[in-house]
Write a structure and sequence with these properties.
Distance between the termini: 40 Å
Number of strands: 5
Strand order of the largest sheet: 1-3-2
Number of helices: 16
Shape: globular
Number of domains: 4
Length: 361
Amino acid sequence: MREFETMIQPCAVYGDTPEYRSLISQFVTRWLPLAEKRLCEADGSPADQARWQGIIAGVQGAADDATVGPSIGTLARNTWSLLDALACAALPGPSIQEIAGQMRRSIADGTYVPGILLTARRIATEYRPTASILHVRLAASDLEAEGLITLSPSDHIRVVTRQETTDRPERIAAWLSVLIQSGVYTPGSRLPALPKLARALVSPTSFVSGALGLLHDTGVVTRHRGMPTTVRPTLPFGAVTPPDVHSLLPMLWNVALPDVDLSHTGIRETCHRTYTWWRSRLAPHPDSLDHTLRALAAAAEYLLPLVAQRHPDNVEVHATLRRTAVTALAVRPPTSEGRIWRAACLGAAVLEVLHLAGDAV
């Protein structure tokens, strides 16, 4: 790392030149085989595999042909990330798979009781030598995908209760049925891929997969291994014609909060607030929750026409716009936990629409 730092210092003076690109390419070629070895060793940890795949993809272009691809600054940052990851992997301590295995055993034998709130730092200190915080986070990501825990951005880890493992898929399935009935996903259409659907529903993929299994069993969707999940042409309930985005705007205006900060930063902060509530299992005051939901409705009313104009014929984008509006307008769940989850779903939808709007905001 010191060698690389010394090597790229002249780039700040002489800029992007073929000579320095060639040096970075030679440097990457030297270390890429070790990164590929680490990727093979990550077998058993989907989160770690995805991390190494991203790191390798960031420098692969420099190894193949240094004259094309991103700027030399981006190449330098990606190469530094590669070296940093390799250095961390060489440190003593338990592997990600070992941490994940111990966490599973602690959940199974009751050492980590359902509902307990842990931190990545506390778990790291249970090992000698102390485990890497990054390794704990990656292990926690694997367990979250299995539906055993929930992981917050602030590194809080909460063991899910037994009731959640059954109730959450049922709640997700019920909400997906509402979206289908409301014309968000039309009969015969494909549902988003499982990872994307899990992000939209702010839930582990295992819970969403369980919900799709329930919908398959009740004749709402068709689901086969290796194939996209599709809404069945004939449904066990009625479904409305997909509403036009512009027809939803007056209804959003009726529930929207006036005088809302509709800047890019303001909308993002409101969306992330709902995410924090849900991931940390915080119970905001009902007035605060209502204020946030109405602020998100205002953001949706502002963003939807911008995105519809930018993507007039994109079927997937218009499904996202309908999902955002329907989520903002739907009847709120009766339980506090259900309302907070629904708010997080709305925050995720508005954040997705904000990204689609781009520089139009």
